């Protein structure tokens, strides 16, 4: 009886193994297809948003006296936030996107340039 049970357990385990191998292979293929392009696109968007934020800061710093117009950063606007806080941190500042291939620089944040 022990050998029969062991054989049944092994058959059941192999069936689970094969099912998980198929699922894992499918997930790996999906990640290989989606991540590289996604990382490049979101990093490009983050770069443009960071540049916009710098322009926005300059605009607000040079606002003439008596003008109350104020634009909100695109990330705050998109996320429906009034400001960043512990429970609503900036994606641009918090997200890290490694390159898909090992040994390459992060896609986001961009590498720091030191003078």
- Rg measurement, Å: 25 Å
Task: Give the helices and strands as they follow along the chain.
Answer: HHH
Number of domains: 1
Figure out the total of helices: 3
Q: Termini, distance in Å?
A: 75 Å
Q: Can you tell me the overall shape? A: elongated
% residues in beta strands: under 5%
Question: Assembly type of the shown chains?
Answer: single chain
Task: State the helicity in percent bands.
Answer: 55-70%
Q: What structural category characterises the helix and strand content?
A: mainly alpha
Give a short account of the largest sheet: none
Mean pLDDT, all residues = 94
Give the number of DSSP strands. Answer: 0
The stretches of 5 or more residues where confidence is low (pLDDT under 50) are none
Question: Helices and strands in order, then pairings?
Answer:
Layout lengths: L1 H60 L12 H6 L11 H4 L21
Structural account:
By secondary structure, the chain is mainly α. It has one domain (2-94). It is built from 3 helices and no strands. It has helices at 2-61, 74-79, 91-94.
């Amino acid at each position: 009886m022990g050998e029969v049970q062991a054989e049944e357990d092994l058959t059941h385990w192999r069936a689970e193994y094969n099912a998980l191998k198929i699922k894992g292979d499918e997930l790996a293929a999906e990640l290989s297809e989606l991540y590289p392009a996604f990382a490049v696109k979101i990093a490009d968007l983050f770069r443009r948003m960071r540049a916009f934020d710098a322009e926005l800061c300059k605009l607000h710093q040079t606002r003439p006296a008596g003008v109350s117009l104020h634009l909100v950063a695109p990330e705050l606007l998109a996320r429906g936030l009034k400001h960043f806080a512990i429970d609503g941190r900036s994606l641009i500042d918090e997200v890290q996107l490694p390159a898909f291939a090992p040994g390459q620089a992060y896609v986001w944040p961009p590498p720091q340039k030191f003078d």
